């Protein structure tokens, strides 16, 4: 089989939609500090509805994420957007990530009743000093803690089995005592805990992962899985094949003018797939990227839906990945973003 002829054999499984490009945090390790004001906006409900209607009719998603680079709770229409997505995608997992700072009991109830399946709260420290340093705000750790616990309590008061609550903490340095403190603090609150390694986005944001990070581990360069299984859509409707492409230089279409069939099977996205199959990573967004390693964790399980020839080619060459911070790749380590279970 001519592998380049299979460049269009992707199967869209995951869709990220930027309901908010704005953020109330100014984290030192995030691309938000690099973005210009004119690139920060809120997605309109009309555009959101157009995307969801189109995807519901023409794709079979495994996961839908109503967020990308900003804080989704800044969009006042978020609960209604999730409710609409739930109606359009009854068999798709809807997963939300938030910093938790804007949560209230009213918002918690609205999100839970809207039908979100999975909520991940990102922590940036375990005290006020860390929060101030990492987020560039005066948000207090105790406020975040209160908001997350109230979210859990609201779920229990409503008698709901979901959403699944995940609390993750970004690790900027290897610190076993801090890991233990995190486990002790949150093990009775969340359904699941993760420690997350820093990554460098597409390598153009001036953000360098620390030496212990999964994303700094030496590995022979391989093609990325993302062009075959995901799309990231910004608040204006532009689509990229990569969630780390924060400047949307891998733009493959525009949902404000096009549909999912034309975008997913278009010449732009096929050319990116063909380049990766030919081991050509010379474009600006891929050249210095480290996030491509995600698809090669846990034996490449993210690739199971691909044809055998394409999957074999993507996995060919290079050493198998070693354990992350002593935790073996046996299913306890998440395939996404260098996460590992606690």
Write up this protein.
The protein is an alpha/beta fold and 342 residues long. 28% of the residues lie in helices and 14% in strands. The chain is built from nine helices and ten strands. It has a ten-stranded mixed beta sheet. Strand 1, helix 1 and strand 2 form a beta-alpha-beta unit. Helix 2 packs parallel to helix 3 and helix 3 packs across helix 5. The C terminus is likely disordered.
Oligomer: single chain
SS elements, strand count: 10
- Mean pLDDT metric: 81
Can you list the strand order of the major beta sheet? Answer: 9-8-7-1-2-3-4-5-6-10
Structural class: alpha/beta
Provide the low-confidence segments as ranges. Answer: 317-340
Q: Give the distance, in angstroms, between the N- and C-terminal Cα atoms.
A: 43 Å
Helix content: 25-40%
Into which percentage range does the β-strand content fall?
5-15%
Rg calc: 19 Å
Brief account:
The protein has helices at 45-58, 78-88, 105-114, 128-135, 141-157, 176-186, 260-264, 267-277, 308-315; strands spanning 14-17, 63-65, 93-98, 118-123, 164-171, 192-197, 230-233, 238-240, 251-254, 339-341.
């Amino acid at each position: 089989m001519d592998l380049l002829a299979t460049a269009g054999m992707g199967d869209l499984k995951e869709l990220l939609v930027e309901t908010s490009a704005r953020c109330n945090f100014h984290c030192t390790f995030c691309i938000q500090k690099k973005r210009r004001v004119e690139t920060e906006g809120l997605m309109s409900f009309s555009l959101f509805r157009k995307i969801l209607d189109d995807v519901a009719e023409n794709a079979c998603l495994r996961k839908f994420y109503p967020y990308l680079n900003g804080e989704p709770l800044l969009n006042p229409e978020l609960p209604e957007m999730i409710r609409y997505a739930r109606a359009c995608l009854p068999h798709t997992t809807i997963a939300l990530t938030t910093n938790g700072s804007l949560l209230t009991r009213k918002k918690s109830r609205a999100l839970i009743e809207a039908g979100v399946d999975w909520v991940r709260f990102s922590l940036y420290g375990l005290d006020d000093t860390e929060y101030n340093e990492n987020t560039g705000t005066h948000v207090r750790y105790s406020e975040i803690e209160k908001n997350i616990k109230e979210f859990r309590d609201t779920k229990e008061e409503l008698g709901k089995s979901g959403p699944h609550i995940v609390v993750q903490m970004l690790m900027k340095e290897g610190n076993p005592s801090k890991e233990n403190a995190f486990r002790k603090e949150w093990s009775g609150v969340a359904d699941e805990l993760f420690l997350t390694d820093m990554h460098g986005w597409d390598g153009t944001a001036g953000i360098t992962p620390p030496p212990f990070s999964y994303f700094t581990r030496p590995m022979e360069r391989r093609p990325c899985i993302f062009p075959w299984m995901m799309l990231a859509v910004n608040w204006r409707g532009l689509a990229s094949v990569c969630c780390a492409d924060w400047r949307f230089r891998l733009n493959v279409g525009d949902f404000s003018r096009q549909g999912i069939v034309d975008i997913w099977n278009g010449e732009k996205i096929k050319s990116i797939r063909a380049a990766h199959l030919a081991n050509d990573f010379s474009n600006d967004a891929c050249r210095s990227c480290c996030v491509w390693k995600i698809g090669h964790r846990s034996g490449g399980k993210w690739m199971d839906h691909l044809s055998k020839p394409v999957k074999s080619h993507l996995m060919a060459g290079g050493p198998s990945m070693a354990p992350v911070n002593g935790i073996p790749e046996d299913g306890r380590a998440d395939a996404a973003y260098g996460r590992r279970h606690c």
